[in-house]
User: Which sequence fits this backbone?
């Protein structure tokens, strides 16, 4: 039985460890004893390690066949680099802000397969686009996606399963999209639109930097955009907080102490954004692909509406099970492309695309083609 190590025992890391434990010898690693205790309740082996200490990280991953990354984004790049230098294959969901292709040459040198951004979006959206890009001439790609609490609760009407700083990044990182073959850069939270979703109602979409690797790997597609979804009204107060400087990484001095406003906000927001025990949430996504197939106009639309299921959070299911599906492909040697592999590369092969969709469907995560 292959040995895998899951770096990060948060809400998504825990779900991935539990899923992988059905087929692999799994060890979960984190600095938080509290988080590890939750994973240990599932009968999974744990180790307490400070993953920001790269020497300790390198030591921890030595005995394992495959590494799964589920650390906060600000740690992700250095963690991936350390894994590559250790000569280990990796599937990662840390969504680090750096360009993953900066590690491509190093990964090829060490003859390893590194799948990055392997979640729901980026992740499954890329896999779907990668599949159709091999089979048609695509003109337009649009992905609308969001994870929200079922009950709208003042003041934020939002709950997070990821690190608060990673969520704040969505509100400050400039959004890149492709229009008429050229890359456009706008501030995050720009171009709000109201969009109706069956089973959910009206949500607000806005520009976020979700295309990531697609800008580089899909130069043939003239129009591509991803937008984040929230309950209507959230953009205005997020803009106010951002313009006030509360999301800034620049240090300020308060009573002789230097602090980053973003760290203070993350600390304040975490309890506000934390799901209460038993609280329900959902993930909604709509992917539209338009173009020409076999000489005729063609339009594909994939819809996802996934809710908390048997106590397992939807965002953890939709993100985590995409990742664990790919872990199976890499562990079995079915996918072995060396270097950095964003998820769209996996979608190119029909057998991989079908395996991932079936794997998700078996876990009641359904992408419906309409």
Assistant:
């Amino acid at each position: 039985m292959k040995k895998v190590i899951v770096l990060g025992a948060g809400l998504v890391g825990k779900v991935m460890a539990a899923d992988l434990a059905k087929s692999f010898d799994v060890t979960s690693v984190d600095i938080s004893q509290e988080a590890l205790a939750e994973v240990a309740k599932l009968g999974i082996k744990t180790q307490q390690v400070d993953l920001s200490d790269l020497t300790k990280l390198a030591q921890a991953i030595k005995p394992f066949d495959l590494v799964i990354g589920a650390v906060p984004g600000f740690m992700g790049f250095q963690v991936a680099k350390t894994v590559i230098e250790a000569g280990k294959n990796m599937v990662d969901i840390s969504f680090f802000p750096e360009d993953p292709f900066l590690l491509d040459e190093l990964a090829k040198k060490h003859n390893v397969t590194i799948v990055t951004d392997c979640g729901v979006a980026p992740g499954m959206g890329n896999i779907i686009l990668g599949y159709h890009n091999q089979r048609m001439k695509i003109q337009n790609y649009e992905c609308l996606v969001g994870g929200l609490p079922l009950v709208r609760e003042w003041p934020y009407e939002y709950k997070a399963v990821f690190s608060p700083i990673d969520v704040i990044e969505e509100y400050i990182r400039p959004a890149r999209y492709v229009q008429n073959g050229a890359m456009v850069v706008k501030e995050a939270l720009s171009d709000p639109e109201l969009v109706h979703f069956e089973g959910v109602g009206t949500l607000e979409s806005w520009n976020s930097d979700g295309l990531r690797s697609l800008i580089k790997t899909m130069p043939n597609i003239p129009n591509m955009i991803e937008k984040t979804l929230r309950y209507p009204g959230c953009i205005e107060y997020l803009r106010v907080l951002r313009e006030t400087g509360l999301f800034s990484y620049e240090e300020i001095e308060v009573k002789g102490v230097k602090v980053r406003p973003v760290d203070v906000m993350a600390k304040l927001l975490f309890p506000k954004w934390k799901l209460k025990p038993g609280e329900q949430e959902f993930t909604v996504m709509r992917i539209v692909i338009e173009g020409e197939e076999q000489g005729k106009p063609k339009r594909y639309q994939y819809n996802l509406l996934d809710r908390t299921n048997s106590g397992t959070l939807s965002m953890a299911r939709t993100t985590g099970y995409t990742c664990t599906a790919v872990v199976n492909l890499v562990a079995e040697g079915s996918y072995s492309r060396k270097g950095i592999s964003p998820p769209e590369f996996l979608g190119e092969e029909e057998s991989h695309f079908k395996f991932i969709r079936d794997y998700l469907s078996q876990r009641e995560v359904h992408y419906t083609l309409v």
